[in-house]
Automatic annotation (TrEMBL):
Keyword presence, Transmembrane: yes
Start and end residues of each stretch annotated as Disordered: 107-139
Keywords carried by this UniProt record: Membrane, Transmembrane, Transmembrane helix
Full protein name: Uncharacterized protein
Pfam families: DUF6584
Membrane-spanning ranges: 146-170
Superkingdom in the source lineage: Bacteria
InterPro entries: DUF6584
Biological source species: Pedococcus badiiscoriae
Composition-biased stretches (Basic and acidic residues): 107-122
Keyword Transmembrane: yes
Length: 173
C-alpha cells in the first residue's frame, strides 16, 4: 500500500477521526486523544478505537492503548505489549479492567474478548456488591439517623442541666 493510499480516509471515516488525524499532523496528540475519547463515549467506531490505541501508544500510555485495542480485532506485538501493561495496571482486577474500556466498547456485544471480560467482571463484582437500598423502616438505621439521635440526646441532657442550674439559682438555700 502506498503512503498516499494509507492516508486517504475511507468513505465511512467519521468526522472525529478526520479531525483527530489533523490534530496528529499538527503535533497535537493530546487533542487527538481527547477528541477520540469524546467521540467513543457516544458511539462505537472501530476506526476511532484503533486510532485511539495508536495515539495512546505513541504517547507511551501503554495501559490506555491496551484498553482501546482490547476492543478491536487488531493484533501484533504492540497490541500484546499494551494489553499486558493494561492488565498490569489493574492487577488483573476484572471490574477495574472492565470500567477502563471506552463506554461504547462496553455497551457493544459480539466481541468475544470483551464479552468474556464482561462475564468475569460480573462474576467478581457479584459477591462484593453492596445490597440494594432498603425502603425506610427496613434494615438498620443509617449513620445520619444515629448522629441525629445522639445530638438530640445531647441537647436534652444540656437542657435538663441548664434547667436544674437555673432552679438552683432561683430557689433559696
Amino acid at each position: 500500500m502506498t503512503e498516499e493510499a494509507s492516508t486517504q480516509p475511507s468513505s465511512r471515516t467519521s468526522n472525529a477521526v478526520l479531525r483527530a488525524r489533523a490534530d496528529l499532523e499538527a503535533g497535537r496528540e493530546w487533542k487527538a486523544r481527547e477528541r477520540l475519547v469524546g467521540h467513543l463515549a457516544g458511539e462505537f467506531d472501530a476506526e476511532a478505537l484503533e486510532l485511539l490505541g495508536e495515539v495512546n501508544y505513541a504517547m507511551r500510555d501503554l495501559p490506555a492503548a491496551g484498553a482501546a485495542w482490547f476492543g478491536t480485532a487488531r493484533r501484533g506485538h504492540d497490541v500484546d505489549e499494551a494489553v499486558e501493561a493494561w492488565r498490569e495496571r489493574h492487577g488483573d482486577h476484572f471490574g477495574q479492567m472492565w470500567s477502563s474500556l471506552p463506554r461504547s466498547v462496553r455497551e457493544r456485544e459480539g466481541n468475544k474478548r470483551v464479552d468474556a471480560l464482561r462475564r468475569r467482571a460480573e462474576q467478581t463484582q457479584a459477591p462484593t456488591t453492596p445490597p440494594a437500598a432498603t425502603p425506610s423502616g427496613e434494615g438498620g438505621p443509617d449513620a445520619a439517623t444515629i448522629i441525629a439521635i445522639a445530638l438530640a440526646v445531647l441537647f436534652v441532657v444540656c437542657a435538663v442541666i441548664g434547667f436544674v442550674t437555673l432552679l438552683a439559682w432561683i430557689t433559696p438555700g
